[in-house]
Write a structure and sequence with these properties.
76 residues; 5 helices; globular
């Protein structure tokens, strides 16, 4: 992951975490819904330590029943 985008990945992860918790979903449940073998990988995404593929981002949005753009609405 490039340092150039690390802040954006951190904000993306915070949004994923927010919407997941808002839906009352654990990392394990969301990981299963989007076919990520290890919940620890989702944890890394939520903490901004791993850059998700677009397939994963689209899967997360679908599983959380939100439009994809919501995950990229970064708050200051």
């Amino acid at each position: 992951m490039k340092d150039k985008y690390s802040e954006s990945y951190r904000k993306l992860g915070l949004n994923i975490n927010y919407y997941r918790k808002d839906r009352g979903m654990s990392q394990e449940i969301l990981s299963e819904l989007i076919s990520i073998a290890e919940p620890s990988h989702l944890s890394k995404i939520e903490n901004g330590h791993s850059a998700p593929s677009l397939d994963v981002v689209f899967g997360i949005a679908k599983a959380l029943d939100i439009p994809v753009y919501k995950l990229f609405e970064f708050r200051e």
